[in-house]
Known about the structure:
By secondary structure, the protein is mostly helical.
Amino acid sequence: MGAGSGLRADARAEEVGVLRDDAWLGTAPLTVVAGEPGSGRSTVLDRLAGELAGSATVLVLRLAELDRELPYGAVFRLLNQLEPGRGDDPAGQPLRALIGRLGTAPSRSPETAARVAKAVFPLLRARSPLVLLVDDAQWIDEETAFLLGALVHHCSGDMRTSVVATLRIGAGDDVPGGAALRATFSRLQAEGRARLRLLRPLSLAQSRSLLAGLVSARPNAELTGELHTAARGNPAALTALVRGYRAAGAMRIVDRTAYRAGWVEPPVATADHPLLRAVTEAGDGVREVAEAMAVLAPLGADAAALTASALGRDEAVVASALDRLVARRALVRRCDGGVRFRVPAVRDALLSRLGPYAWRSLAARAVNAVWDGEVTAPDDDFVLDRVAQAGALVDARRAAKELLEHGRRVLLTDGAKAERWLSAAVSRVTTPEERAGALLLLSGARALHLRQAEAGECARQVLRDHVAHLSPAQAQELSIVFITGLTARGELGELAEIAAGVSPVLPADPALAVINRAFALMMSGHWPEARELLESGREVWSGGNTVTADFGTMFLAGCGVVLGDSSQLFALVAHPELWRSGHLPNHRFEQRRFEVDMLLQLGELQHTHRRMLDAGVTVEQLSGPDRFALSYLGGDWPEAMELARRTLLEGTDPARPMHNMMMHGAIRILGAQGWLARARSLAAEGRDLPMSHVVDHAEFTVLRKLGDDEGADGLLFSAARSADRGGYLLGTEDLWADLARSALLRKNRREAEHWVNRSARTAMRLDTARAHLNHHLARAAVYRDPAAARRAVAIARERRDVPYETAMAFLWAGLAGHEPERSWTEAYELYGEVGAWFWRARLRKLLRDNGFPGPGRAETTSENERLLAILVAEGLTNRQLAVVLDASEKSVEGRLTRMFSRIGYGSRVELAAAILTGEYLS
């Protein structure tokens, strides 16, 4: 969906409301709405016209620059509005004749103004109540401006007539326009008959509202702040930025939330807008100075002289151009004698339009001036960015040294800067050894900051051209980066070649070859084959370098978890000495992260926390999917969804099991909260993941809520087939239990018993609390086994720190007959901890239908309204609402009527928009 084309009404709703009320109350006969170019004056006027249309006659005059040249031209335009198609009407003929005579010999005497105003007045009174809206009144002719005062005096009596005029603020203007207009307004303002309202820059909240309307998604705080600052709250600049960001791929929408895509570097080209035209239409000489200042202005007072030198102009000429840019409100003076762009978006637009050589030349001018001591740079980063941009126009050896030094400095903290500077360094180094080292750093920076595809290409260059400069351990690490990059780009053909042992890029070392083949198989979804290769080649890879041997140990344990054998993982956790490179800090850290990742996939939250504490691993040091799992399991669902969206935005490896598990968890969260359409949309994105059974299973829960039992069962069977094809047991722990319950609903007891047996085998092989819990729940459901239900509840209580899974266990145990009132009451409280509004509503009904005490009326009403609002915003029909809420359509209609009367939104569309912007259910 493209960006919108104008100011979203909500962004100026307050100003429109004030103007509307003033017009209704007759507070002042004349109101002037002034704002800079792009501030939304015309849009405010249009919105005001729409709001007043039902209560008054509204006339709109839109003036242009040529109207200034025609005496009484605005009055003629007004007459055409008052008497459309009635030019020969006797009532208007004397006035037209009078204006015609005055137009040939304009007079600005008070008597003439009073005479014309007296003639116009009856035509206005006939339309009372009347609101005249004049857009771009700075173009009003002097004669009309002169008689405006007399006309306002006539309208100040009992007649309900008011004028609202918009004016564009220029350089140094308080009230723009000609002398007559300024004098008239000043006089009327002194008399209390006119007031000035300035359209100030949008607040941050107004910018957020505008952004939401433009992108049809909720902008996150980082994106809102960046665009608001770049546009300085100017609506036209903000709109142009949105279009530019979307065209450049600098903005992405994930799960109805708009984010800044961090790897598209500024400046981002923007569409033309009024603030930019203040520069581009100022003449070539002035525009060229502005373009140079876009690069050099951070150098303060020295920038003007550098600009003159770069452009080959006299300094006085440049100073004059700068004065003109200040007058046109493009630049503002700084206290140090320099200038800065008033609106950063204008600077970025100019930078994006610079040609490559012009940019390199200006950047080199700045760098050489700093290096020669002629000017002082504002900070190191400014110089390094200009060094990177200057290319071969600055000293290559010094450039490479500084870029490498500072690239290492920000390697862990600022991936964008690290990549920018290290990429430039690669092209500046002169020896193969230096190039190999620079490429290693660049590959590491990209891999650390999840630029897997780009890191892989960098690794390819090193392995292909500089492998002689690598140690075996470095070659192994780069091989893994290279294969990960192929996976991120979807290069399945080359992955298959590596898996088959054929690669012109990877080293031929036998130990490395086994590990690389196994990793390619894992990334292709062939986990059983990878495990078989690792088992059969254990003697080869275990005899290699310590890094290669530890990759073999890691991959074998990972295959075990995915395929249903967690013993090797728990052995590594219990005996860290099994890792051969554990004495190396970096490798020891990665080994602990691997263990945490595997434990989280198994649902072992308590074990995970203990391992992190023992190893000194912090939450911030984990990958996005692992941090999601911590929040999802621990019940912090808002944080979990934010982490899921950011992970999808930044990119992760979809072939890795935790990415699949993250998608599963995110779909479950959305479904449990009532966001059913969002859940299905996310499921569609994960349809082609290697471990598709976890996505199918998660979507099953959504279709079941929607009452599509046939579709839900189809997804369950699809998940079972997918898991069996891949040999997966990971992610099937609760799948078999759901299949057993589904078979019971279809009255197929034999099938239900089959799935109970599958759950028993999974519990025995995985031997985790989650697997045993779901096996006992399956037995309790199929056999009505009280002992199984008690064991399930006991395990669930031990996992109280995993509130959602514990709540689901209590729900199923209660349905199987185990202490229903207590089980459901505890489940209800746990659902509240995570915000599972759908399940809270189901539990309230379940408690009520079984005669058990439930929550109070206020809580019930509030939560029912919240869930109903979510479902309405998701686009559900009344029939679908009835199914989801387990109510009749008539009941749903009554609920909707009561809800809309309480919350104040007039339609489903308004409600959905309010939820989107965070105005409602923030």
